[in-house]
From TrEMBL:
Protein name in UniProt: Phosphoesterase
GO MF assignments: hydrolase activity
Organism: Methylocella tundrae
Domain annotation Calcineurin-like phosphoesterase: ranges: 36-156
Gene3D superfamilies, per the entry: 3.60.21.10
InterPro entries cross-referenced by the UniProt entry: Calcineurin-like_PHP, Metallo-depent_PP-like, PdeM-like, Pesterase_MJ0037-like
Pfam families membership: Metallophos (PF00149)
Length: 239
């Protein structure tokens, strides 16, 4: 029933990179219909338990919550392949801290489809006992899927930077996770429940999208509750 309701409410946005149209989903994933390829970035499984080990006690349910959202996407799109763009695990020991239920949940989502884990800066190695193919990057047609975006790249789909946009509204401003694209590349928002975000005006985006002389073609695809909204970069606010 919840899936049916969500299907009714979902408003998808088309995000075009070179000559390829992707669906930008309100949960923070890209879907390539022709390839039946679902792309998510920065799951950061077990970030909560990593913080708890340092004495910062967060609710220990971030992995389970992230898996629930991922399960909704997989049920909706029925992908042939899932590509996780790195930092799927918050650190090298995250796999050891995962509960049996969460490990089983990952395995259940992998059934009947290919699953590619792209290496990130947090998870150079795939945790023991987990299925799927580990790669540094993946090329499909004109698209290259990797964790950390590279200056000057074309046809690149990456994560790592956790983009967020601050947008003015009637009651003030809102700060939401966002895709950012100039039509030649895209940086995905972080998908993990506890993942933070970096404002699109941060200098880390300058080598990717033109620095101070930004083009009006740069769009933030801002995640709402059930829709993705296109906002020109020039209308996004700094923090």
């Amino acid at each position: 029933m919840r899936h049916a309701a969500r299907r009714h409410l979902r408003v998808e946005a088309v995000l075009s990179i070179l000559d390829v149209d992707f669906v930008a989903d309100p949960l923070g994933a890209l879907f390539w219909r022709e390839e039946r390829l679902l792309v998510v970035a920065d799951l950061h499984f077990e970030k909560g338990s990593a913080f708890a080990a340092k004495g910062v006690f967060l609710p220990p349910y971030d992995t389970a919550a992230t898996l629930v959202s991922l399960a909704q996407l997989i049920a909706y799109y029925e992908p042939r392949c899932v590509v996780a763009l790195g930092d799927s695990f918050h650190d090298g020991a995250a796999g050891d801290r995962m509960s049996d239920a969460d490990r089983s949940g990952v395995g259940g989502l992998q059934q009947g489809r290919d699953w590619i884990w792209i290496a990130g800066n947090h998870d150079r190695e795939l945790p023991r006992g987990l299925s799927g193919e580990a790669r540094n990057e993946l090329a499909v047609g004109r698209m290259t899927f990797r964790h950390e975006p590279a200056a000057g790249a074309i046809g690149e789909i990456a994560g790592h930077l956790h983009p967020v946009a601050r947008v003015a509204g009637r009651g003030g401003s809102v700060r939401r996770r966002s895709f950012v694209s100039d039509g030649a590349r895209c940086v995905l928002p972080a998908f993990g429940a506890f993942a933070g975000g970096l404002n699109l005006h941060d200098s880390a985006f300058d080598p990717l999208f033109g620095g101070p002389a930004r083009s009006f073609a740069i769009l933030a695809h801002v995640m709402g509750r059930s829709a993705v909204y296109r906002v020109p970069h020039r209308l996004c606010l700094p923090d």
